[in-house]
Amino acid sequence: MYQPSVSHFPRLSVDELRIDAISHEDVTRVVQYFQRNRDFLAPWEPERAAGFYTEQGWKRRVLQLMELQKHQLAYYFLIAKQDSPQVLGVISYTSIMQYPSHSCTVGYSLDEAAQGQGIMRRALAATNQWLFDNVHIHRVCASYMPCNQRSAKVLEAVGFEHEGRARDYLLINGQWEDHLLMAHINPHWRPKPA
């Protein structure tokens, strides 16, 4: 289904999709993605400082993300079609912990025009599997607002299971929002040999 890479800057391929860890060359593309989807994503995301929508802001952010990727502390993936530079979505893995939890948290967003095509489902399945295979992750945690049924369907389709509800969990668009908590467990995880 996907082609793994052992690089700290992986490049995955799923069907017609290209899923690459962010790098210096991607600044303009990711800024265009967030500018284009600013209003569409606002109900689901934290309030953003003005610099979030600028190339200068993303140049700094990409440097930080690349450093985190180099040390396997976080990964930030961009989703695009094989034949197009336009970013269709992003997937971020943060709070990557090794022993004893071997876990991380995932967040994602998808372009308004790319909704309903199975893009996030396929991309998330591939990036989760890459983390399981290459970063020795046992548990990927996710959360979504109860009203976001599209996100619920994506997570369930990829193998996430419900674990509970967190009250006032994240400050989204200026308001504390409850979130439903889910996790995807790596069924093939084994301790690394000593």
UniProtKB/TrEMBL annotation:
Matching InterPro entries: Acyl_CoA_acyltransferase, GNAT_dom, N-acetyltransferase
Domain of life: Bacteria
Pfam family, any one: Acetyltransf_3
Keyword field: Acyltransferase, Ribonucleoprotein, Ribosomal protein, Transferase
Gene Ontology CC terms, in alphabetical order: ribosome
Domain N-acetyltransferase, chain residue ranges per copy: 17-187
Family: Belongs to the acetyltransferase family. RimJ subfamily.
Name of the protein described by the UniProt record: Ribosomal protein S5 alanine N-acetyltransferase
Organism encoding this protein: Salinivibrio sharmensis
